[in-house]
Amino acid sequence: MSVKSLRNFIGGRFEDGIRTFDKLNPANGELVARVHEASRDQVNAAVAAARQALPAWAALPVNQRTDYLYALADGIERRFDDFLAAEIGDTGKPVGWASQIDIPRGAANFRAFAEIARTLDMESFMTDTPDGRQALNYAYRKPLGVVGVISPWNLPLLLFTWKVAPALAFGNTVVAKPSEVTPSTATLLAEVAAEVGLPAGVFNVVHGFGPNSAGEFITTHPDIDGITFTGESATGSTIMKAVAPGVKPVSFELGGKNAALVFEDADFDAAVAGVARSVFANCGQVCLCTERVYVQRPIYDRFVAALKLEAEKLVLGRPMDSATTMGPLVSHEHREKVLSYLRLAVEEGATVVTGGGVPTFGDERDQGAYIQPTIWTGLPETARCIKEEVFGPVCHIAPFDTEEEAIRLANDTHYGLAAAVWTTNLTRGHRVAQAMQVGLAWVNCWFLRDLRTPFGGSGLSGIGREGGRHSLHFYTEPTNVCVKL
Ligand SMILES: O=C(O)C(=O)/C=C/C=C/O
After folding, report:
1. What pairing do the DSSP bridges indicate for beta strands 250-253 and 351-354?
2. Distance from the CA of 169 to the center of ligand 1, in angstroms?
3. 0.90 surpassed by complex ipTM
4. Which of 137, 171, 176, 361 has the most CB atoms lying inside 10 A of its own CB?
5. What is the pLDDT of residue 1?
6. Ligand 1, residues 150, 449, 470: which to mutate, most atoms within 8 A of Cβ?
């Protein structure tokens, strides 16, 4: 595979950076790309270009503006194979997952928000006034302005476009920094933006890191009007401090320590398959993944044995092999973090039901960041491996007896992102889902997404919701106009 040069996209033009850094393929350690790190001056130029493009972009009739989003979606689909190869080269994720989730959702996000922007109603009220007449109140919405987008490495194109699409749909312009770990599909999207004639400055891509690099230059920039970020909770705190002097709005989708509750009346096979997918999908690198499984005692032993079988059926193969069901972690650095938790779990007294280490293949995959899918039991609820997000293909399974106990166990966390409830008693399913202190509760399913619904979490899992009309609250500023009639 040839080594790509990934450049910055500023004011409609591709530019070299001040230095380059290497991007390695996590499946085999091969050099994939040399990435051009943007300077502070280049980030300043991107913000200036976005500011200059804002009035004309915001003034476009919504159908014309959203036609560009449909064109971006069409462009992703037109270059599907390029985006697929880029995403897989960056992440090592299996072609089955990337071709069904990551790339299609890249296009779907643009279409969903184009449709929402075109069809959303305007909030208004007719107000009776003391003089027996009325007043008309309506919320006139304007774009937030120049939006800083900082996106993560786990679902790179999906989460990049999950932010860029609503930002552009509602008339904002964007300065976006993809994770330095997965720079390729964001750069391809910039190529598509140029191909479809998106006006210069509307969408800018700058590459780099967080501290003392493009991430910090964006979040501390006085002319950025708001930041939308997906990533680790600690980074979210850092960004909040950076925007505090300017009291800028933030939209955060951060970490999670998500629970799955399996009741004895669950469809056993469906619950096993569903929990296995929610634990091991994308090598456990989805903020919504399950890391804590609680199973009602009568089926506990049977469930542990069944999930062990599912884990051991996973095919840790080459990313482009359609038989592969689990690829490597995204980098050796991240594997070291996950391995530190595998070691910690043993120190904290875990029983390792399966996995717990690094597989050996005897081929180029040994240079990759592969790790064994792992299941623990026997940890106390106070263990760090029960409280802290691992963000890898690992889970802990514990028994419970009553519904009240299950709810208490699931909610005993400072995170608040997602939960999954497995039961055939839907009255219980609704009741327990509503009792979860999370932003997203699935019943007899997981990661089933309707893009019109509110998406996000509370506590350490973030601030705000994006999706459907909920994206309005971050990407627009309403002026309530009151007219005496
Ligand atoms: O499915 C989505 O729209 C989404 O935002 C997924 C986020 C996953 C984070 O790791």
Report:
1. unpaired
2. 19
3. yes
4. 176
5. 62
6. 449
pLDDT digits (tens, 9 = 90+) for 134-158: 999 999 999 999 999 999 999 999 9
CA distance 474 to 43: 22
- Give per-residue pLDDT as tens, 219-254: 999 999 999 999 999 999 999 999 999 999 999 999
With a 6 Å cutoff on the Cβ, whether 175 touches ligand 1 is no
Token couple for 132: 């027996």
Residue pair 422/446 in contact by the 8 Å Cβ criterion: no
Angle at which helices 156-169 and 80-91 pack, to 10 degrees?
130
Percent of the chain scoring above 70 in pLDDT: 100
Report helix angle 156-169 to 62-78, nearest 10: 160
Concatenated DSSP letters of 36-98: EEPPHHHHHHHHHHHHHHHHHHHHS-HHHHHHHHHHHHHHHHHTHHHHHHHHHHHH---HHHI
The reply to whether ligand 1 has any atom less than 6 angstroms from the CB of 155 is yes
> What amino acid positions are annotated as catalytic residues?
253
CB of 32 sitting under 6 A from ligand 1: no
β-partners of residue 251 are 228
Contact at 8 Å (CB) between 345 and 371?
Answer: no
The helix (run of H) or strand (run of E) holding residue 332 is helix 332-347
